[in-house]
Design goal:
Blueprint lengths: L1 E10 L3 H8 L2 H5 L5 E6 L4 E6 L10 E11 L3 E7 L3 E12 L2 E12 L4 H24 L5
Antiparallel strand pairs: 1-7, 2-3, 3-4, 4-5, 5-6, 6-7
Length: 143
């Protein structure tokens, strides 16, 4: 079973400013609560060190991520692979009257027991964390 989540938010900032956050692989990874550490390998590749609170996972998982499709400043799709799961994330930015409509989409395909249950329970919070990190980075309140 694949767990999917999507959130569409309006950010009161120009698309180019929001893209500056989305374009930074580390900024995209840091708000995810299970990312313990991060290594930038290139402009389009990184390693996330992820700790999942699930049975059979008593160590940090290495998730190799890479940007698959990019159309600056409108769209990026990334893929992350590990022994425990595969994640696909998409970030689509649309300019709407000087503001940015941002569509955040994630799907997680678990390869070990407990991964999908964890993400099904927590993925909405992870998207909320990412949204809040963008607002904080831009110096905007999320009220």
């Amino acid at each position: 079973m694949v767990v999917r989540a999507e959130r569409v938010v309006t950010i009161p900032a120009p698309r180019e400013r929001v893209w500056e956050f989305i374009d930074d692989a580390e900024k995209r990874a840091r708000p995810i609560s299970v990312v313990e550490d991060f290594e930038l390998l290139s402009d389009s590749e990184a390693v996330w060190h992820v700790s999942l609170p699930i049975p059979l996972s008593d160590r940090t998982l290495r998730v190799e991520t890479r940007d698959q499709n990019r159309t600056p400043p409108e769209y990026v799709e990334f893929i992350g692979d590990s022994k425990a799961f595969r994640v696909v994330g998409e970030h689509e930015l649309t300019d709407v009257d000087g503001q940015t409509e941002l569509r955040l989409s994630f799907s997680v395909d678990g390869r070990v027991p407990g991964v999908e249950r964890f993400f099904k329970k927590n993925i909405d919070n992870e998207l909320e964390n990412l949204e809040q990190a963008i607002l904080d980075d831009l110096g905007l309140n999320s009220e």
